[in-house]
Amino acid sequence: MARNPEHALADLGQLLGEIRNWPCISEPRPGSFYLGQRPFCHIRVRGARRWVDIRTRRAWLPRFDLPPNDAQSRLALRILLHQAYRIDRQPLRSRREG
Hints:
Blueprint (H helix, E strand, L loop, with lengths): L12 H8 L4 E5 L2 E4 L2 E9 L2 E6 L9 E2 L5 H19 L9
Antiparallel strand pairs: 1-2, 2-3, 3-4, 4-5
């Protein structure tokens, strides 16, 4: 498992600050976020590569490549995380409800 040196997350400061303030989110290690007791978002770094693993209520999403200092990728990640978080915070409906 790739660990996250602090300098590898430096350009994500504003986004990480936002996530840290979301209700029910915890960050036991830098770049590893949990929604309640369940993994939600893990930022991985290996060599010059950086990617994000995002889990929704049902499954892990495809790996999100996140090149350092890429504003468009950060914006796309912000949108994706907001959507995943919003979906995960909605109450589960039973199959009978439709």
